[in-house]
Write a structure and sequence with these properties.
Layout lengths: L3 H11 L4 H10 L6 H9 L6 H11 L3 H4 L24 H5 L26 H11 L5 E2 L14 H10 L13 H13 L10 E4 L1 H13 L5 E6 L4 H8 L3 E8 L5 E2 L1 H6 L5 E7 L11 H14 L2 E5 L23 E7 L12 E7 L5 H13 L5 H4 L2 H5 L14 H14 L4 E2 L8 E2 L2 E2 L1 H4 L4 H12 L1 E2 L1 E2 L11 E4 L4 H17 L3
Parallel strand pairs: 1-13, 3-4, 3-6, 6-7, 7-8
Antiparallel strand pairs: 2-9, 4-5, 8-9, 10-12, 11-15, 14-15
Helix pairs in contact: 2-3, 10-11, 10-14, 17-20
Family: Belongs to the class-I pyridoxal-phosphate-dependent aminotransferase family.
Pfam family, one: Aminotran_1_2
Cofactor: pyridoxal 5'-phosphate
């Protein structure tokens, strides 16, 4: 069945236009068309409202009915917009080179990026940056960066790094310093990950680099990988960039945001290579119990899938709960577990993360060779940051004082949960880990049909920056994520702004 997305891409190819061209033309004509909007149209995630549809049809010189699939599936009619009474528009090249000699070539981004989205730092954040350039103060609840909110790196880590800097001037082994990997291996033993040696540890410039590396080494064009919805969008972006197809399974808000196992089952086919879990979860703050993890392991075992487990928040668990690494339940499967120090030790800027290969590595020998190749190609990760892994993972864990009653993260969670859910039209599942919450908006009460517009309007009216649910590959326009790292007095200001905004806001 031909879709709007199919016809849009066909018309764009016939006119030799890319997404960036449509955005530029829209801006020239005063039409509001953002990067995330056009990417979602091209990827088939959504279709435009009527005014945008007609803008696209006019720009691409096709019939709007044909573009929206309301007419027969024949080739796109061209020339439907008459331009005979006006002079042809000059290209940028002709403007720059009116004589026509030595025409300059225009360089555009790779088409591989056409369907890649990362709205955690997307159009809404771009607008916030413009406001700040004009001198406007923006209250940011959009990104999990502890340092700006007064969380300091433990003194012992700073001390140890400063004393080792002179030993960190050269490259390390591509997989990382021996001392760092040894400490990570011992941490894996405490987490009961099976069959892990020091050669199964890879350090990276944060977990982000390793997610990209692991997807690039695995996925061929058309391969599918199950990723949660909502997700941390880097997983979807990296899978897409690698040529794979991110297939999103639902996490169920009515069940504490646990993965919907039945939905996962429905979405597995012969092209599915792996599944991803994010536990503890970003953006929901959910922590998965052993029973849920075991069901996921059983599913992966039945369909011979790799398990990728993002556990960067595993040391930020509250309410006396315990984090369980899914790999500890799957000694017969091949698992890749990701973690790091950015969040637990408040050193996001140091960029130090790791991945651990465990379980049945024999079935992934060729894939592991790919990981080694890509690891070698980037030479090594940040050596000064590697030098403090042993210090960070040993001895007293300062983060523990933050996540108990009276601790900052615990008390800020208590405040934001109670304060936001006191606002009429806002509900939420109380997070058990990390430092995010994913509240739900009553879209009927506020007539909200576009969550990115909601975030932009909140930013412009109240100078408050949040991330809309669509930025986490959540399909409905009814959620947003808040970070509760700021102190309670700042969170109180933010909640008052949201409450006042919703008292009058309607789309």
């Amino acid at each position: 069945m031909v879709t709007f997305s199919d016809r849009l891409k066909s018309a764009m190819e016939q006119k030799h236009l890319k997404q960036v061209d449509l955005i530029r033309i829209a801006s020239q004509q005063g039409v509001k068309l953002g990067k995330s909007h056009i990417s979602q149209y091209v990827s088939g995630k959504t279709i435009p409202r009527n005014d945008i549809l007609h803008f696209l049809a006019d720009t691409l010189e096709v019939d709007a009915g044909w573009l929206s699939c309301k007419t027969a599936e024949d080739p796109a009619p061209t020339g439907s917009i008459s331009h005979s009474t006006s002079a042809p528009e000059k290209s940028q090249q002709e403007i720059l080179n009116p004589g026509g000699n030595n025409t300059m070539r225009e360089f555009k981004k790779s088409s591989k990026l056409n369907n890649v989205l990362y709205d955690v730092r997307g159009p809404v954040v771009d607008e916030a940056a413009k406001m700040e350039e004009r001198g406007t103060h923006v209250l940011k609840l959009n990104i999990g960066n502890p340092a700006p909110f007064g969380f300091r790196t433990p003194d012992e880590i700073i001390y140890d790094m400063s004393h080792q800097l002179s030993d960190c001037e050269g490259y390390s082994a591509s997989q990382g310093l021996f001392s760092a990997r040894k400490a990570i291996m011992q941490y894996a033993q405490l987490k009961k990950l099976p069959n892990v040696t020091i050669d199964d540890i890879y350090t990276g410039n944060g977990v982000s680099e390793l997610i990209n590396l692991s997807m690039s080494a695995l996925l061929d064009d058309g391969d599918e990988i199950l990723i949660p919805s909502p997700d941390y969008p880097l997983w979807t972006a990296c899978a897409t960039l690698a040529g794979g197809k991110a297939v999103h399974y639902l996490c169920d808000e009515q069940s504490n945001w646990y993965p919907d196992i039945s939905d996962m089952k429905k979405k597995i086919n012969d092209r599915t290579k792996a599944l991803v879990i994010i536990n503890p979860n970003n953006p929901t703050g959910a922590l998965y119990p052993k029973e849920v993890l075991q069901q996921i392991v059983d599913l992966a075992r039945e369909h011979h899938l790799i398990i990728f487990s993002d556990e960067i928040y595993d040391r930020l668990v509250m309410d006396g709960q315990e984090h369980i690494s899914i790999a500890s339940l799957a000694p017969d499967l091949f698992c890749v577990t990701f973690s790091g120090l950015s969040k637990s030790h408040m050193i996001a800027g140091f960029r130090i993360g790791w991945m651990i290969l465990s379980g049945n590595k024999s079935i992934a020998a060729d894939y592991i060779e790919g990981l080694k190749m890509l690891s070698n190609m980037r030479l090594c990760s940040n050596v000064p940051a590697q030098s403090i892994v042993q210090t960070a993972l040993g001895g007293h864990q300062s983060v523990e004082s933050y996540i108990v009653p009276g601790g900052r993260i615990y008390e800020q969670r208590e405040y934001i949960y109670n304060a936001l859910t006191d606002i009429p039209g806002i509900s939420a599942v109380k997070p058990q880990a990390a430092f995010y919450m994913f509240p739900k908006i009553d879209t009927k009460k506020f007539d909200i049909v576009n969550d990115e517009k909601f975030a932009l309007d909140l930013l412009r009216d109240k100078k408050l920056l949040i991330v809309h649910g669509g930025g986490f590959n959540w399909k409905e326009p009814d959620h947003f994520r808040v970070v509760y790292l700021p102190r309670i007095e700042i969170l109180k200001e933010a909640v008052e702004k949201i409450g006042d905004f919703l008292s009058y806001y309607r789309q």
